[in-house]
């Protein structure tokens, strides 16, 4: 008689964890392949040698045209922001051309793409032996720490390699400071302030101390909520100390509220410019505190904003307002810059006979306005407030009018049509016996 030992079933939790780790290894390997493909795309575009297509103003170098065309093209194909795409391009080219050991570790699945981004970012400016030493050191460290820990080690290694350039690198980094908004669910959004570390830490410290003072005085809100509330209050109501800055400026928001919703009998949501639909209570509060109103007429069947302004050589204020209402954001595919901060562009260039009429105007951010005129991107107005954009590689994108309101319900249109027909019939009957 033999005794058999039953085999233990593997723990499903452990199996799931192992599968996640295995998938991460595959993702890392594919990321290395992607880096090579991105670099090859850059090389092929370089062989095409695209030139500046503008008709006036400073001419862009071929290198700049190549860079912009590649980033804008990839951003739309991969559904990334242009900022993230630029990071993808820079990291890929750095790995393939300058960081062979890091690329090898990524190909083997020993580090993640996030690790590679950190290494490539801090390698900028290193050359020769300093670059080789940095590559070897960071490729080894990346297998032991997470990307955030690696960030600190990368900065340390760079300082050891070239301490004399620290000030130059800090000045270059300060030139990338920016602010941007990311919409979130349920009427919320994120504000990102990317600025030099001393200023960011000082802002955080001030928010903490202001919140602590309110908390000590008996305010029932949590410290987390107090920090957000006091910082919001300072940003909205504080005055700038920068010489030359205009004082007394307050933040503005634009809300489109359907008349029936405003009267409390409609269900269509109000639209917060640059965000989207907002809840009725928030809309009611904003409209109650509104400092100005403007009536906008829309086509009840299509929802298209109507316009009756005359044509003129230069865009009138009404034309500009109309274009911004139809397109609340820059019309370049994927761009979210508010139209109030954008240039008013002639879709068909004025230099080539484009008229200054509402049907030929659309907002383009300053950056994308230059992209349109200096690269091979092409835009066409379709006559229904939509635009068609064609990329240098031939990909076609349709830009809808985000400012269009929802059409009136079909039942209301039918009822209105029926009432109009009955009225016309009644008038004909009343005039039937008229001798004239």
Automatic annotation (TrEMBL):
Pfam families: DUF222. Residues 19-302 form the DUF222 domain. It comes from the Bacteria. This is DUF222 domain-containing protein.
